[in-house]
Design a protein that fits this description.
about 50% helix, 5 helices, 2 strands, globular, alpha+beta
Length: about 80
């Protein structure tokens, strides 16, 4: 689940989510734009205000651009239950 999708589904603005998570709107924006990595620490911090599990925020897919310019789709799934 993408961070922005979860935030919009909750009806929260970036500013509201930032306040609930104890950070600033700029940090939420950077996370949503991929300018800052959504780490496990961020997932733990944002999950409660969004009403999701941290692992939900860390699942999804990313497109990586290789050195030769080709793009590949990579899916990922983190299990934080152990």
């Amino acid at each position: 689940m993408r961070l922005k999708d979860a935030r919009v589904a909750c009806g929260l603005s970036q500013r509201e989510l930032a306040r609930l998570a104890g950070t600033c709107q700029t940090e939420i924006s950077k996370l949503e734009l991929g300018q800052r990595q959504l780490s496990v620490r961020w997932a733990l911090r944002l999950a409660t205000p969004l009403g999701v599990r941290p692992s939900d925020l860390l699942q999804g897919e990313i497109i990586r651009e290789n050195a030769n310019g080709t793009r590949t789709l990579q899916t990922y799934d983190f299990d934080l239950s152990s």
